[in-house]
Amino acid sequence: MEEREIYLLITRYLQKQTNTTENEMLADWMTSSADNEQTFEEIKQAWLSVEKPNVSESANALSKLKNRIRQGTDQQIKTKKLFPLKWSRIAASLVLIGSLSFAIIFLAQSPKKSINVMNSLATKVGEMKTITLSDGTKISLGSKSILRYPVKFEENERSIQLDGEAYFEVSKNPHKPFVVNTNDLSVKVLGTHFNVNASKNQVFTTVSLLEGKVEVNLNDDQDGAYTLKPGEELSVNRNNLQVFQRKLDSVSVLGWMTKTLVFSNDKLSDAAVKIENMYGVKLVFADQATADTRLYAQFNNDKLDDVLEIICSTGNLIYSKNGNKIYLSAK
């Protein structure tokens, strides 16, 4: 991704203007290197410094970002001859910094301007992270997911944004509901334990309630809210908006947290999503018949090769590896 493009993407993200695909692109870029994470933090600090009407603080944050980019361009000049395209990239970066400077100083000088400062947490494929929010709510973030949350919650509501999968242990507050927003639905609670799976690589967005009570509202449904009781889950088909409410299997729902996989007559193509997220690989099927192979199995923190061996022995399949890709076909 071009340097100018990533700067623009970060600023759009900080303004809550990005979609799920862009969020995933940004997460991949952020988690690919420590240098990228540092760049993101410096841009975020420069942008978010507008919360305090202090031009000096804004200028300091921006100066740090400028110096970082200048160091990079100076190194390019020393190591190799710059072609016109390189000059264009540098110029574009400087133009963007100029735009950021104007926005930051203008907003910092407006004492009536107030923004809700947002933080973000992202995970790579096969990675899990845990965070405790300012209200005491504990969140476990699943593989290849992004959590966007405020430094300080609003007066009447605690609201966060999720792209991917997470398990929530919400701190109880009867006067301030906790709301989880995804692209398909929102979940409103006062204090409870539940799991939300809004991963892009799955057809269904699912809310699973382990404890307490939640209210689920579909973004494109005007029929009202769905109420879940402990031991129930609600799944929404993104393609046709069909809603399914049923009893849940807690072992299966929380398997991603304990590296437990449970498959009960699942198609291998559906099971592949969980395997890919847990082990950071990509399963490739030789044909549709292989993808439709039914699977009955349970794995508890098993090695990937052991999982593949059992899948192949029960489904009369064979597999081969090429990097992080796993190729499966009939014997």
From TrEMBL:
Every Protein FecR C-terminal domain range: 261-328
Regions crossing the membrane: 90-108
Record bears the keyword Ribonucleoprotein: no
Keyword set, alphabetical order: Membrane, Transmembrane, Transmembrane helix
Any matching Pfam family: FecR
Taxonomic superkingdom: Bacteria
Residue span(s) of domain FecR protein: 121-215
Protein name as catalogued: FecR domain-containing protein
